[in-house]
Amino acid sequence: QEVRALFIKLTSAKATSVNFTDSDLSHGELEGIILTKAVLIGAELVESNLKYATCIECDFSYANLSGVNMAEATLKGSKFRNANLSFAVFQNADLENARMQKSILSYVNFKSANLHNADLTGVECFSSDFSSANLENTNFSTAICKDTELSSAVIKGTILKNARFNDIELK
User: Fold this and answer.
1) Digit-coded pLDDT (tens) for 61-120
2) Is the pLDDT of residue 11 over 80?
3) Are 142 and 123 in contact, with CB atoms under 8 Å apart?
4) Collapsing DSSP states into helix, strand and coil, what is residue 76?
5) Are 53 and 72 in contact (CB under 8 A)?
6) How far apart are CA 53 and CA 31, in angstroms?
7) Of 4, 8, 76, 101, which has the fewest beta carbons less than 10 angstroms from its beta carbon?
8) The Cα angle at residue 58 between residues 81 and 40, in degrees rounded to 5
9) 26-60: buried (b, 16+ CB within 10 Å) or exposed (e) per residue?
10) For the chain, what is the mean pLDDT?
11) Nearest to 31 by CA among 87, 60, 69
């Protein structure tokens, strides 16, 4: 069944293998939530607050996460394939081994985030901020990035095969 909520509050809740496929959790208050292997494929999480959340191996593929706050969240091994992450905040978040292939990353804040071994193949990245982020071994193959901030980012081993970067700031 489809979940539709005008406002949901699950602050500091804990769940394993929960299924929120195609659910509308927009504007939800989910700060500090702990999810393991949760399925949120196609979910609407517009402007939801997941600050300090722990989402291990969760699947946000095809989800609308525009304006979501995932600052300081632990998102190791989570999938964001084909997701809309415009205006999202991942500042100081741990996205190690995250999968974000073909996602929209416009105006995203990745300041000081850990994207070690993340897969950003084919992303569309416009005016996003990766300053001081760990991009070691991150795959940006076929990505299109414009007006993107990379100052003080760790880029050792970053894969840029057929990627297009324009107007990049590398201080």
Assistant:
1) 999 999 999 999 999 999 999 999 999 999 999 999 999 999 999 999 999 999 999 999
2) no
3) no
4) coil
5) no
6) 6
7) 4
8) 70
9) bbbbbbbbbbeebbbbbbbbbebbbbbbbbeebbb
10) 92
11) 69
